[in-house]
Write a structure and sequence with these properties.
Distance between the termini: 14 Å
Number of helices: 7
Shape: globular
Number of strands: 11
Strand content: 25-35%
Length: 262
């Protein structure tokens, strides 16, 4: 019998919900992280997600989450219990992440960063070092050597930077953050200037940071891109070895399968 897992990447901007089987993440949905939501509103949205995927509560074997928004955690937990009849397991609280954490204060590392680093190592066991680059609310660079999480860097995020810029400049238009070209265009409109400035600017930042990390990490090193803008940045940059937009969801799937909690 096929087991279906419901996976939650609870972030500051969005909640990404994945539906997975033992072998892969099949599909995912992105909902806004709403501070005004209730456990019931979340539960009803979950039922809609499952209905769209052709599933019902009885088809879900387990619910697993990673979160950087503590206030949302009890709401999602109650929603899973009431509407899906499943206990929600959080990583690393309920499901340990088997990486040596070398952060000075290990509890300060966001669960999302640890799960992504773990997923990168499990999916790509070959290279001595790995860097997971997550284009989320912030752009994070997380470094793994062998079976150890070394730490990383936290840089501005694409969307948060665009939001900060627009909030402080009355005349700048809203932008799509999408470009069709593989090389930067000298913008002859504000929209083109902004779109190309953001995409190629973040690509250049990423390339520069990775080049410098390559000087301090023991090689060989491979780089995994993930997050909402991973494909957009990867299309105009050649600094990534792998592009896995659902890397964190893959990590939750693998953690649950390897945890022995089934």
């Amino acid at each position: 019998m096929t087991q279906n897992f419901l996976l939650f990447d609870i972030g500051n901007t969005n909640v990404k919900i994945g539906i997975a089987v033992e072998s892969a993440v099949l599909t995912s949905y992105v909902l806004p992280t709403d501070p005004g939501q209730t456990a019931d509103s979340i539960g009803l949205r979950l039922l809609e997600v499952l209905r769209h995927a052709g599933l019902g509560p009885a088809d879900i074997s387990a619910c697993v989450a990673s979160s950087v928004v503590p206030s949302v955690n009890p709401l999602v937990r109650r929603a899973c219990e009431r509407y899906l009849y499943r206990k929600l397991l959080f990583a690393p609280g309920d499901v340990a992440i088997p990486l040596e954490n070398r952060y000075e204060r290990p509890a300060e590392v966001g669960a999302d960063r640890l799960v992504a680093a773990y997923a990168a190592r499990r999916l790509y066991p070959g290279p001595r070092s790995l860097v997971s680059v997550d284009f989320g609310t912030a752009t994070t660079f997380d470094c793994v050597e062998g079976g150890a999480y070394l730490g990383g860097l936290i840089c501005p995020g694409v969307l948060s930077s665009a939001g900060a810029l627009s909030s402080r400049t009355a005349k700048l238009p809203r932008i799509s953050l999408e470009v069709a070209e593989d090389t930067p265009v000298i913008g002859r409109s504000t929209t083109t200037s902004l779109n190309h400035g953001f995409i190629f600017g973040f690509a250049a930042m990423t390339e520069g940071v990775l080049a410098r990390l390559g000087d301090v990490l023991p090689g060989p090193t491979e780089v995994v891109a993930t997050g909402g803008f991973a494909r957009d940045i990867a299309r105009v940059s050649r600094c990534f070895d792998h592009v896995r937009p659902d890397l964190l969801l893959e990590g939750l799937r693998l953690l649950y399968l390897e945890s022995g909690t089934r």
